[in-house]
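CO-FOLDING WORKSHEET

Operator: S.A.
Ligand of interest: flavin-adenine dinucleotide
Run index: 402
Mode: holo prediction, single chain
Checklist:
[x] sequence pasted
[x] SMILES validated
[ ] output reviewed
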Amino acid sequence: MNPNPDPIVIIGAGPAGMATALALHKVGQRPILLERYREARPAGNILNLWPPPIKALQEMGVDTVDLGAPCHTTFRGIKGNIRADVKIPRDVVDAYGGGFIGLLRPELYRRMLAAMPEGVLRTHVEVVGLDDHGDGVTVTLGDDSVIDAGVVVGADGIDSMVRGHLWGPSEKREHKLHIIGGYTFAAIPGVERNEVVLTHDRSVQGTYSSIRDNGRDGIQWWVLEAWDPAAEPPTDLRQHALSLARRFPGPLRALVQSTEPGHFQRWPIRDRKPLRQWSKGRITLAGDAAHATSPYAAYGAGMSIGDGYTLGQELAGIDLSDTAAVIAALTRYDERRIAHTTSQVQQAFVLGKVFHHAPAFLRPVRDFILDSTPMLQKQVGEKSPGEIVAQLDEMGAGLVTR
Ligand SMILES: Cc1cc2nc3c(=O)[nH]c(=O)nc-3n(C[C@H](O)[C@H](O)[C@H](O)COP(=O)(O)OP(=O)(O)OC[C@H]3O[C@@H](n4cnc5c(N)ncnc54)[C@H](O)[C@@H]3O)c2cc1C
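OUTPUT RECEIVED:
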């Protein structure tokens, strides 16, 4: 029985907001999830998920059976040589349906929405103002109506209004990179199944990965290069992606060629410098609002889902009329999430610099080191996946009502 009269309001129905709503409902709190658009819909297509978000989704009651293609990941040099083999323990692979699963975003949304209890999600509702008055938060909506909330979670993405409200304006950090990606269900010879094949030449990354989508096997791919954010985007994504894919061995070029026109997308890559604190009073942040991340981590959505799970654990059994208890719960949430997400955001930022912004004269030296020493193996093959897998223990026994 929930003793709190006011709901927990979550702003934004992306992976962070949906996960927070599901987790809070599971532990007996009363979430309301507000989305400004007419429906909760993904802003992109390609996606991979690590084991911790899969564990979190399962705990929230989301069906993860056959959600994606189980993949093993290698970083390779341009001659196909393995520079790093991403190590995920066998028992983890077995327990979570694969080390790194490849899927399409709409399927993740569909499954999370299918688990959403009736009445939690309210669409076409934009939040325009917040006032934390100590005993609660007044949430003002675009039509000037208000909702009284016990706690507010800003899961409103990289351009978060809530982050600005709590911590003031911050510049977006331009990585001066862009990524063009797509997917195909065509049968292409030479594709290594259930692998993420991530290859770098001197200045471009070209990658493909198996996916499952609605019971179908397919392949997603992307190319990533330096790009001035002030420059016009390429006019023809297929031709531009092909010009980059040609530089790589294997089936990348054929994958781009067989991609349907509507299945191409381009994103400039940017994040924001990580914050040292997310929560203030009764308001907190989750997902990209807290830790926008370069896709070099392939973990932004995964971390967003982890935030929601942790909020569920920390707010389980909390009486929202007890301000001190609310603040203590949100402080614990910050303590559990900030170090891990900051490390991943910064690593992704640095990888982008090393692979795409090294001065031309240093690139042969860099590549010699990456080809002939265990440096990359230690960082992206062991340290980073080790940190991510360690989250499985950090997450504890699950979402339980206190
Ligand atoms: C090319 C690319 C590849 C990526 N690949 C991966 C990957 O492989 N694995 C991975 O884990 N992550 C990946 N990511 C990162 C991932 O996409 C993001 O981290 C994730 O979508 C963030 O989710 P979110 O819920 O925080 O924000 P969003 O998905 O941005 O959702 C925010 C929501 O808030 C709503 N909203 C905003 N303001 C308001 C308001 N005032 N009122 C009401 N609603 C509001 C928006 O409409 C939106 O629906 C990738 C990102 C990119 C660009």
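REVIEW:
The longest strand covers residues 173-184.
DSSP finds twelve helices and 17 strands in the chain.
[x] output reviewed
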